[in-house]
Write a structure and sequence with these properties.
Blueprint: E1 3-14, E2 17-28, E3 32-36, H1 43-50, E4 58-63, E5 73-76, H2 80-83, H3 90-100, H4 106-119, H5 136-148, E6 154-158, H6 166-183, E7 186-191, H7 194-200, E8 203-208, E9 211-217, H8 218-223, H9 228-235
Parallel strand pairs: 3-7, 3-8, 5-6, 6-7
Antiparallel strand pairs: 1-2, 1-4, 8-9
Helix pairs in contact: 3-4, 3-5, 4-5
């Protein structure tokens, strides 16, 4: 697998606070890279930088030789309840990125929305529903469909199952795994729980105080972590 995204010497400061401190990281095409760390370790800052929502203080992020990742990289949020506008129907929410990026004519969007809903195992008729009419797992499926609407090849999964019941977590993780293979996606899977990350990831990077302190194959990190910090995270994880 070749490199899809190359991160070099990435630093991000917020005033006197250094959220990221010289991160070097390559994300390979077609892989799931798990990113784990405690709250405040810099995970969300890295995600926002990858998506182009904020700019680095120094260092670089290169995607396929370009610094512009805005359309090719999308995000699935932690809480689908807050990421979906309660005033608009599911179909409008999913169709919005298609409209914004002018991916297809307006008269074809409804058909595409139905296809995306079926892709995440929801009936096409759900396009007429509002978010409050759906369960948490269904809302997260809508969030995934919306992220896929602009035909990205890279998804940031920002704690995508942490707000869901354990049984629903497994369903969503299975769906994400199937979609990755079916559509040839690349994932950055962010979580604080190593066991959840281990279910989906090919490699795992451990972030502590803005630095990558451990990076290896998922099995090696889970079965024989080098760092005490990683061992502590693993001990606190709930095994799926």
């Amino acid at each position: 697998m070749g490199e899809l995204i190359k991160i070099e010497k990435l630093v991000k400061r917020f005033g006197e606070i250094k959220a990221l401190d010289g991160v070097d990281l390559a994300i390979r095409r077609g892989e799931t890279l798990g990113l784990v760390g405690e709250s405040g370790s810099g995970k969300s800052t890295l995600a926002r930088l990858l998506l182009g929502l904020i700019k680095p203080t120094s260092g670089s992020i290169v995607y396929r030789g370009s610094a512009d990742t805005r359309r090719a990289c999308q995000i699935v949020f932690q809480d689908p309840q807050t990421s979906l506008n309660p005033r608009i129907r599911v179909g409008e929410a999913i169709g919005e990125p298609i409209l914004i990026h002018k991916i297809m004519p307006k008269n074809q969007i409804n058909v595409r929305v139905g296809e995306l809903l079926q892709l995440v195992r929801l009936p096409a008729a759900y396009a007429a529903r509002y978010p409050h009419e759906l369960s948490g797992g269904e809302r997260q499926r809508v969030g995934i469909a919306r992220a896929l609407a602009s035909n990205p090849e890279f998804l940031v999964l920002d704690e995508p199952v942490s707000s869901l019941d354990v049984s629903v977590q497994v369903e969503i993780l299975q769906l994400l795994k199937e979609l990755k293979s079916r559509i040839d996606l690349t994932y950055l899977f962010i979580a604080h729980d190593l066991s959840v990350i281990g279910y989906l990831s090919d490699r795992i990077a451990v972030l502590k105080e803005g630095r990558i302190i451990e990076l290896d194959g998922a099995a090696k990190v889970l079965d024989n972590p080098r760092e005490e910090y990683t061992r502590n995270l693993l001990a606190a994880s709930f095994r799926l």
